[in-house]
Amino acid sequence: MSHDASHPAHLAHHFDSPEQQNQSSSLGMWLFLAQEVMFFGGLFVAYAVYRFKYADAFAVASGHLSLFWGAVNTVVLICSSLTMALAVRCGQLGDKRGIIRYVVATMILASVFLGIKGLEYAHKYEDQLVPGPQFEYVPDFDSYSVPVTAETADPNFAGHVQLFYSFYFVMTGLHALHMVIGLGLMVWLIVKAAKNHFSSEYYTPVEMTGLYWHFVDIVWIFLFPLVYLVWRH
Amino acid sequence: MSSPSDHHHVMPVRTYLNVFGALLVLTVLTVVVAFFDLGPLNVAVAVTIASAKAYVVLLYFMHVRYSNRIIWLTAAAGFVWFVLMLALTLSDYATRGWLPYPEAW
Amino acid sequence: MTKSRTHYLNVNHTVGSWLFTVDHKRIGLMYLGTILFFFLLGGIAAVLFRVELMTPGSTLMESETYNRLFTMHGITMIFFFLVPSIPAVLGNFLLPIMLGAKDLAFPKLNLASWYVFTIGGLLGLGSIIFGGVDTGWTFYTPYSSTYANSQVILAALGIFIAGFASIMTGLNFIVTIHKMRAPGLTWFRLPLFVWAHYATSIIIILGTPVIAITILLVAIERIFQVGIFDPALGGDPVLFQHLFWFYSHPAVYIMILPGMGVISEIIACFSRKRIFGYKVVAMSSLAIAILGFFVWGHHMFVSSQSMYAGMVFSILSFLVAIPSAIKVFNWTATLYGGSIKLDTPMLYALGFIGLFTIGGLTGLFLATMAINIHVHDTYFVVAHFHYVMVGGMVMAFFGGLHFWWPKMTGRHFSEMLGRITAVVIFIGFNLTFFPQFIVGYLGMPRRYHIYPEEFQIFHVLSTAGAAVLAVGYLLMAAYLFHSLILGKRSSRNPWKAIGLEWTIPSPPPTENFIDTPVVDYEAYDYSLERAYEDDEEDHS
Ligand SMILES: [Cu+2]
């Protein structure tokens, strides 16, 4: 099959035009993201039900998380979204070196985020707050000024606290997994950019990775208040 | 080449920086608000601020503002479906107490 | 000459040319082979426990074995046969052709979906080989997450992974329908098969991820003992049911909607009429897809779900019957005054209409809260969903397979044997499942193999029916296989049907269309001259 001028190298044979191909990729990516919303959505619904049932336990458990590091990570991730958006902008302008520069910046910020997350996990591990048979939580109401209610007096209160941590680890863990996949995509972008595959006519992979990355950012935008800010007053 | 769905629409760097600034301000706001006791409103405010942040990211970083209708629809469908799933599930938990259970429960 | 013509089957014969193909038609056939294997597996399980059920006591097997068999039947039939059946086989094969496209929008993703599905299937198979699962296909917690002493994790991971195959297919379909329609092929000129797959894909995209995360939570809870659904730690088993049914009720429509699409194609062709109320039928698919999401609580009337939520779910369940009924009425109206030909595909289609109607109406009984309490978890429920799933979906699948068999293989099956088999299957099906309505109404609970003696007659009838059904399926396997080798070669349009797939040779060339077709006519316009056009000699 020969590629003439009207059929550039990046255009797959079953598409008629680059426009059609790009719009297909874009719609496909958005459908994937809609699917992702429902994937995380199931978790958020479960979280909501338990928060509704065990409000006090969730408040106490959330108080053990480090607000400082959570907030720092939020800022780090927002910065990475900015650099990613600028990488896509460079794609629009056909600026290959700009793409590489901003993607590398995004990767550095993502690594910082994951590093901080890892430290937080390690800290929770030391405090025996990782759910499972080894989980140990001794209620310490005074330091969190939680009133003794029917719920906090429940002999199973520690179990409810563990539920919070189950969600904390599953939700942030799946989010982190998505970031690791994003990092993989960015390595691929750098390779493609270095090989001169992108131009202002074709930068679809940069655009799609950008969409994915911003989605990961949005998940965190919701996770941050729901996980770290349950009970701060 | 130039249609409303044109993916070549280039926004000025200034717009990106403004969005970035708005996101930082909203992040500070959500942390500050969390230190005030608003009762059940704390969750509502936190989720509202988060939704505002997500909306800005969608519109500008993800270019939904310059995308065609089907993209709008797809983006909206995910969120609307999530809200409906949440609402119907919680409708169960919220109304369980309405009917008193026998003593043994 | 037909002998020398190159088509998608003979273009290359190496194993690699199949395993690395991105041709949607070949991938459809690979899916066909894979799902038929699981159909066989699920069928074997069914035969085994049907034989056991002939006697009221425990004759052939222990309860442990029985539990594993019905679970194996449910999991393989639902997740590895019914959900992918029509979309991944017929949809894959036909959708791009019906749109006048060379392939799906993402051919590599399509191939990936087959691999992902196969990996999921192998994990499911592994769970059977390493001892089976005893939770039922519904995986209710806390039994599945804490107490079950069987291969829950393997099966859960298998379903989790196969779910992504389904998502890949759905995503591919939606993009293809939006972006790759031939010139002139407007939305309301699309075949209803395409509309049905569009609606199905929406459900897949918005529903399947929820079962994925739910089943993942069960696996996580089992592996790490973290108590997400464990009441001992304050977890809520009813929450699992909410999440599970949020997918699994719409999954019923993932299974039945493509079947409805197939039926529309067959009814139109063998009545030689445009589908009555085309637009309404198309829109009813979307209505089912959307409404179907908000009825899931009708599975939970006795689960301690709030009565008020139950009332809402009950009302919504009644609402979703409306678009389903619209379809049935419109098919019937299409038949009225048509020049009906009772060829094999049409027999399956007529069977579908009758059996689906019974399945659907008994669904309304079950959506009624007071009746539901009486028949909850009885054979009445078993009979109901088999009328929808087997009487509906499996009938539609085999109807479609026969309808497009000449297109896919380029060969004719024996029409005589085809008709006989369709009748045998119809009789076998009703004999198997109708007695279950009665025995269920009398109080026989599902998932038990030891039962009071007065129920035996119904179980014997049911098992006899299953045997007839099995004979029907084996007969079909035999003559279809025979047709592959010795069947008469098919022309491009053996049924004289309208539709882009009938304008290209059988079997189609790899690129489907030499020139992109231009569509200037409505779907099912059987008044057109071209409906009767059938070149015996394929020119390409
Ligand atoms: Cu249902």
Fold and architecture overview:
The complex is a heterotrimer of chains A (233), B (105) and C (540). Chain A has six helices and no strands. In chain A, 71% of the residues lie in helices and 0% in strands. By secondary structure, chain B is mostly helical. Helices cover 67% and strands 0% of the residues of chain B. Mean pLDDT of chain B is 87; it is low at 1-6. Chain C is mostly helical and 540 residues long. In chain C, 66% of the residues lie in helices and 0% in strands. Chain C has 15 helices and no strands. Chain C has helices at residues 15-19, 24-52, 63-98, 107-129, 143-147, 152-179, 192-224, 237-271, 278-291, 307-335, 344-367, 369-375, 379-409, 415-441, 456-486. The structure holds copper (II) ion. The site of copper (II) ion has 4 residues of chain C, from helix 8.
Global geometry of chain A = elongated
CATH class descriptor of chain A: Mainly Alpha
CATH topology description of chain C: Cytochrome C Oxidase, Chain A
Q: What is bound: which ligands?
A: copper (II) ion
Largest sheet of chain A: none
* CATH architecture name of chain C: Up-down Bundle
Largest interface: A-B, 52 and 51 residues
Secondary structure category of chain C: mainly alpha
Q: Give the mean pLDDT of chain A.
A: 89
CATH architecture heading of chain A: Up-down Bundle
The top level CATH class name of chain C: Mainly Alpha
The CATH homologous superfamily of chain A: Cytochrome c oxidase, subunit III, four-helix bundle
Distance between the termini of chain C: 10 Å
CA-based gyration radius of chain C: 23 Å
- How many domains, in number, for the residues of chain A? 1
Order of helices and strands of chain A: HHHHHH
Which characteristics define this entry?
heterotrimer, A: 233 residues, mainly alpha, Four Helix Bundle (Hemerythrin (Met), subunit A), 6 helices, 71% helix, elongated, disordered N terminus, C: 540 residues, Cytochrome C Oxidase, Chain A, 15 helices, 66% helix, 0% strand, binds copper (II) ion
Short description:
The complex is a heterotrimer of chains A (233), B (105) and C (540). With 233 residues, chain A is mainly alpha-helical.
Could you give the topology of this structure?
The complex is a heterotrimer of chains A (233), B (105) and C (540).
Chain A: H1 18-53, H2 55-63, H3 67-93, H4 96-126, H5 157-194, H6 204-228
Helix pairs in contact in A: 1-2, 1-5, 1-6, 2-5, 3-4, 3-6, 4-5, 5-6
Chain B: H1 13-34, H2 41-61, H3 69-95
Helix pairs in contact in B: 1-2
Chain C: H1 15-19, H2 24-52, H3 63-98, H4 107-129, H5 143-147, H6 152-179, H7 192-224, H8 237-271, H9 278-291, H10 307-335, H11 344-367, H12 369-375, H13 379-409, H14 415-441, H15 456-486
The structure holds copper (II) ion.
